[in-house]
# Entry
Amino acid sequence: AEEAALGALASGCSFDFHKETPHLFVVGTEEGYIHKCSTAYNSQYLQSYDGHQMAVYSLKWNHLHTHVFLSASADWTVKLWDAKSPKSIMTFDLNNSVGDVAWAPYSSTVFAAVTADGKVNVFDLNENKHEPMCEQKVVRKAKLTKIAFNPKYPVILVGDDRGCVTSLKLSPNLRKTSAPYQDPDTGKTVDNKSQEVKKLDAIIEIALKSVSPEEP
# Structure
């Protein structure tokens, strides 16, 4: 059993460690499967997710919401997951192989993905749950393979398969984040992270209801 599990792991092509629980990580395989694993176990998965038809090129945990991660695949899709559920919550079809995906560090609902046809797609699920807020052609004769948000400034970097890196500035409508405020009922300050978690939870709740409507 252990040899079989290790053999399955050998076909992995992406992984990401959890932001707050260092021993947890997710692995994406060439077959399209995603596995949640722990460094404490070398012969079994904690959970498996069957969501893609082709290789999973990128996996990214949300910076602010501890249960949520994204996957990007050669099957042209990006999927949003709750780590507790084996089925994806939302699917975004980008019409080409998706090389990488990244969450914005300042918002729980903003992410960006790059495709093999040279495009960058930036989403804000709080503004539009289905289509990107921005789609930009960056290169014409290369495949985009990597994307990263600057942790401090409104800038993203994208890399392609020819070794070039391009810097792009985010427009103001893609930089929105929650500001701390004082709860009038309790008098306590509600911080940015709490608001961002609540914001994404509301979006996930709506998405789940649209997939599985309640019986009348």
